[in-house]
Amino acid sequence: MAELPEKVLEEGAKKCEHALVGFFVGKKILFWSLHSALNKKWSDAGKFSIHTAKNGIFVFKCESIEVRNWILDNGPWDVWGVHLALRLWERDLPPISSGFSKITVWVKLMNIPMEYWKTKGLIHLASILGTPLYMDLATEAKQMISFSRICVEVNADRLFPDVIKSKRRSGDMEVKVEYS
After folding, report:
1. Other residues' Cβ atoms within 10 Å of the Cβ of residue 2
2. Measured between alpha carbons, how far is residue 53 from residues 3, 11, 58, 59, 122 in Å?
3. Are residues 92 and 12 part of one domain?
4. Which domain covers residue 55, as residue numbers?
5. How far apart are the C-alpha atoms of 77 and 180, rounded to whole Å?
6. Domain holding 69: CATH number?
7. Ranges for the DUF4283 domain (predicted)?
8. Mapping DSSP to helix (H, G, I), strand (E, B) and coil, where does residue 36 land?
9. pLDDT tens, the chain, 180 aa long
10. Do residue 86 and residue 23 come from a single domain?
């Protein structure tokens, strides 16, 4: 079996180190539509290129970690109303094998009891849905307490509940959930 020298692999990995892998949830988007839409949305972040893989999977090579992080931090993204699921590129894994068993989504939690309006309380609520990653600025600052927005990594093959129910001393609690 032939083996590529590690130096060649390192050089190739260097070109992809700030890449993202993505696909559209539920619908396919044509390359040129995607290219046009994302150039408008992401151009302020810096340079990136889009590459098609197989089965609707795209690789987004970003010129720097700052560009990649800007894309991740300012999502979720959609093109023509279709959600773009993104994940970090992983070395030694072909894009087609970059399973999307987990995706990141922004969730909007509403009807939150006041005693949950602290970081630990909001993270606890979001953790019922998946792994909380970060909150939007308004939620972090607790400026507007009619709802919170939290980015959560969820299992793609599970149901997305509309409510989080919990029993409390004062009775049942229902926090409403909306997904971006």
Report:
1. 3
2. 23, 20, 6, 7, 37
3. yes
4. 8-96
5. 9
6. 3.30.70.330
7. 13-92
8. helix
9. 666 666 665 665 566 778 888 888 767 888 888 899 999 999 889 999 898 877 778 889 999 989 999 998 887 788 888 888 888 877 555 555 455 667 778 889 999 988 889 999 999 999 999 999 888 888 888 888 889 999 888 877 677 889 998 777 877 889 999 886
10. yes
Q: Which H/E stretch holds residue 139?
A: helix 137-141
For 16, the enclosing helix (H) or strand (E) is helix 6-16
Q: Within 13 Å of residue 150, how many CA atoms lie on the same side as its CB?
A: 27
What is the number of residues in the chain? 180
| Distance of alpha carbon 64 from alpha carbon 73, whole angstroms | 14
